[in-house]
Amino acid sequence: MSQVDLTIAELPFHLVADELERLRANTPLVHVLTNEVVQCFTANTLLAIGASPAMIVAEAEVADFAAIADALLINIGTVYPVRLQAMNLAIDAANAAATPWVLDPVAVGVLQYRRDAALAMLAKKPAAIRGNGSEILALAAALALNAEAIAGGKGVDSTMSSMSALSAAQQLARATGAIVAVTGATDYITDGEQTWAVPWGHPMMTRVVGTGCALSAVVAAFLADAPNRLNAVAAACAVMAIAGERAVECSDGPGTFVAPFLDALHVIHPVQLRSYSE
Ligand SMILES: Nc1ncnc2c1ncn2[C@@H]1O[C@H](COP(=O)(O)OP(=O)(O)OP(=O)(O)O)[C@@H](O)[C@H]1O
Ligand SMILES: Cc1ncsc1CCO
Ligand SMILES: [Mg+2]
C-alpha cells in the first residue's frame, strides 16, 4: 500500500513569478457570483492583478456566460434561493465546458441552509475550495457527517487558525479532488498530499471586508488554463499576501489600506519576485 506523502514546504518565489507571468499573459475572464458586500472590491482586485472580472448573475444569463468565461467563482456569503439557483446553473455550464470553478464556503459552519447548498455543490466537483480555518473545518466535518464538529465561525469570521484546519483541508482535498486553500496567518494550499505554505500577509487584511472573498476570485483567475492547479492556487494566495504586507507599509489603518493594496497588486512583478529567490 502506498503511503500518503504529507510534505509541507514554503512556496518558492520563482513559482509565484511563473504563475503571475502566465496569468498576465492570459488576462483571464473571470465569471464572479459572489456576495453583495464585496462585489466592487473583488472586481477591482481582479483588474489590479491583470484579470477581467464580470459579475453576471441573472438566472437567464449565467449558463451562457459560464460557458465562455475562463474561470468561475461561487461565493455563498449572501446566498438566497434565486441566487443559489443561478449559481448551480453556472456551475453546471462551467463543468460542461471543462471550465474550473472555485467554491468560497462563507460561514458554512454557522447556518444550515448554506451548509446544504455547499455540500450539494461539492458533489459538482469544484477545482478549488478557499476558506478560512472555521469554514474548512466545518465543511470537512459536514462532508464526513461529523455533526458535533460542524458548528464554527463567528459569522463570516474565523475563530480557528489555519494551522488547526490543515488536516481537515488535506482530508477535504482527498475527499473532493479539489485543491483546498485554508487561509489565515499562514495560508496552506493542498491537494491532499503535497502542501504549500504561504507565510506572508498581515492581520490588517482581516480589518477590511472581503480580502478572503477577493482572494477566492484571484484563485479562480490563476486556475484558468492552469497546467498545475496546486501551484496556481498557491500563487494566488502568495500574490495577495505579499500585496497585503506591502500595503500595510503605506497605510495608517483599514481606511487607508485598500488603495495601496490595489496598487501593490498592480505593480507586483515576476522579475522582482524572482529576485527574492536569489
Ligand atoms: N493573521 C494574519 N496574518 C497575516 N495574514 C492574514 C492573517 N489573517 C488573514 N490573513 C490574510 O488575509 C487574507 C484573507 O484571509 P482570511 O482567512 O481572513 O479570509 P476570510 O475570513 O474568508 O475573509 P473574508 O470573508 O473577510 O473575505 C489572506 O490573504 C490571508 O493570508
Ligand atoms: C460581511 C459579510 N457578510 C456576508 S458575506 C460578507 C463578506 C465577508 O465574507
Ligand atoms: Mg470568507
Give a description of the structure:
By secondary structure, this protein is of the alpha/beta class. The protein has a single domain (13-146, 155-273), classed as Ribokinase (UDP-N-acetylmuramoyl-L-alanine:D-glutamate ligase, 3-Layer(aba) Sandwich), CATH 3.40.1190.20. Helix content is 48%, strand content 14%. The chain contains eleven helices and nine strands. The protein has helices at residues 13-26, 39-49, 62-68, 81-96, 112-122, 133-143, 166-176, 211-223, 229-249, 258-267, 270-277, and strands at residues 8-10, 29-33, 52-54, 71-75, 101-104, 128-132, 179-183, 187-190, 195-198. It has a nine-stranded mixed β-sheet, with helices on both faces. α1 crosses α9 (229-249), α2 crosses α8 and α9 packs across α10. The protein is globular, with a radius of gyration of 17 Å. The model has no long low-confidence stretch (mean pLDDT 96). The structure holds adenosine-5'-triphosphate, 2-(4-methyl-thiazol-5-yl)-ethanol and magnesium ion (MG). Magnesium ion is lined by residues 104, 106, 132, 156, 212-213.
